Amino acid sequence: MTIDVEKIYIDNDDRVIYDNLEKELEIKKINKKDLFMFALSTGFKKGIHPHIVKKQEFFWTNNLRDEDEIIIKSIALNVTKNFDVLQNHEELVKIVQEYAHGGIQIIKEKLARPGSFIKQMEKEIEEEYQFCFDQQNKREDIIPSAGSDIEKIDHLISTFKPNK
């Protein structure tokens, strides 16, 4: 699985934000690709994807791992709702570059807040985990955990059958 585009670009004005983030996380030894993926997921989660005005190179796509490409392709597919985007690598990369551009703006605001950026992120991760845990518990109310897969599917179908 390879994205057939040589480089990932960022907005020219975002470079200083990435540099500040890299300094803030220096002890974690996070590379540019990981910072980009962090910004991408942040922008996608918030639905922010402004157009990139003036771009500059950030990293080579050969630094992407398979799981990074899966995330990138999943986001592009989710945004376009069209499987053709998986073949149009330039459009795919354009989409994720814009979401990363939006995400880095959110991160910039968090970096400007007083206190430790890492502590802020830890708190957000804990809240996100709790939200996911709560959602999982809600699903278990709908789908019983005991029984075979067929029984679970049958229960799910009967739960959501429209009333006649």
First-to-last CA distance: 48 Å
Q: Average pLDDT across residues? A: 82
Radius of gyration: 20 Å
The helix tally amounts to 6
Q: Give helix and strand order, one letter per element, not per position.
A: EHHEHHHH
Please count the beta strands (DSSP E, at least 2 residues each). Answer: 2
As residue ranges, the low-confidence spans are none
Number of domains: 2
**Structural shape:** globular
Q: Please, could you describe this protein's structure?
A:
- The structure is a single chain.
- By secondary structure, the protein is mostly helical.
- The protein folds into two domains: 1-112; 115-164, no CATH class.
- The chain has helices at 15-24, 32-46, 66-80, 89-112, 117-142, 149-160, and strands at residues 7-11, 55-60.
- It has a two-stranded antiparallel ribbon with strand order 1-2.
- Helix 1 (15-24) crosses helix 4 (89-112) and helix 3 (66-80) crosses helix 4.
Question: Which terms summarize this structure?
Answer:
mainly alpha; 164 residues; 2 domains; single chain; 62% helix; 7% strand
Describe what is shown at a glance:
The chain is mainly alpha-helical and 164 residues long. The protein contains six helices and two strands; from the N terminus they run E-H-H-E-H-H-H-H. Helix 1 packs across helix 4, helix 2 packs across helix 4 and helix 3 packs across helix 4.
